[in-house]
Write a structure and sequence with these properties.
alpha+beta, flat
Length: 107
């Protein structure tokens, strides 16, 4: 947490920053998987919602309110996305489209 954010002193702020870190991590994983096409064709994340009003890793809370994870996942799973990454001082860019093919079947 301290690498990217100032560590909060208040519990509610700590939970919020924790949700941002989780959202950024899941977005990074989704983008990594999508940029690895055709070797990796996607990903799923666990868990979408809560059955109790608690602090958890879900993307939607017990009351149906979206958490940071759900907003970040929506962006990362868009049909076409530009993914930028850096390695060894080199900037890489990947334009990742979802290609839908129509196939005719014989009856």
């Amino acid at each position: 947490m301290q690498e990217d954010y100032k560590i909060p002193r208040i519990l509610s702020s700590f939970l919020y920053v924790g949700q941002l870190l989780q959202a950024e991590a899941i977005k990074l994983a989704i983008e990594s998987h999508r940029s690895g096409m055709p070797y990796c064709m996607g990903s799923l994340y666990w868990q979408i919602n809560d059955c109790w009003p608690v602090a958890s890793w879900s993307g939607i809370d017990y009351y149906g309110k979206w958490k940071a994870l759900h907003y970040f996942a929506r962006e990362a799973f868009k049909p076409t996305v530009l993914i930028l990454s850096e390695a060894d001082g080199i900037l890489y860019g990947y334009l990742v489209p979802i290609v839908r093919r129509v196939r005719k079947c014989r009856s």
